[in-house]
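DM from R.C. (forwarded with permission)

"hey, sorry to bug you on a friday — could you get me a structure for this? deadline for the figure draft is monday and I only need the backbone to look sensible"
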Amino acid sequence: MNAPLLAIRGLRASYGKIEALKGVDLDIAAGEIVTLIGANGAGKSTLMMTIFGKPRARAGRIVYDGRDITSVPTHHIARMRIAQSPEGRRIFPRMSVAENLQMGADATDGTPAERAASLDKVVTLFPRLKERMTQRGGTLSGGEQQMLAIGRALMSRPRLLMLDEPSLGLAPLIAKQIFDAIRVLNRQDGLTVLIVEQNANHALRLAHRGYVMVNGLITLSGTGAELLKRPEIRAAYLEGGRQTDAPAAG
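My reply, with the result:
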């Protein structure tokens, strides 16, 4: 693999005295979809938030496009065209759909033409948003709010899009639309995507490569297809809907 777009080495992060990341190593090449799976509390969301600067890494390095961003403030990270759609969507419920999307565009210094092109891309991917531009975000359905959260992230024209639990709480048909949109963005635009997802079956089928996190550490990695075939992955994350810790490689 060529020099990765994102390289994480020995990353540690804590909440007070609780160490959530215990030395994580992870690479993402430009143009890849990489998925991170693991049980609740494994540290997946913490890893994504640490990449974005909150919480701060306690040790280790985060290198993006050849630059060490471990100590870079969050608003500067956003201007480097890294975008995040967080768990729980976190849209602005009293703002209109258009205003929410504008907030995403304001994260970077795009020209009016670039902002217009981004908006056109978002409403092409998610036509429902075009129909609801003047509607308050808080009045949208759960699926529409997820589309809005992803659309807001896309308005910043990211090179790296980080998605935290994009299918959480969604009906299967709506979740499929979300995964299809991610696939289109990757195939047509070459967008690099890091996705944290409890629906391991969908996520690994979508991803070029995957990592398994257990208790703040990466314990397994491989292509999506390879991980889907591993019996310990099937037992822990695919069969019967269980979300238990997968054993370490060995």
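R.C.: lifesaver. The first strand starts at residue 6 and ends at 15.
me: no worries. The CA atoms of residues 77 and 97 lie 24 Å apart.
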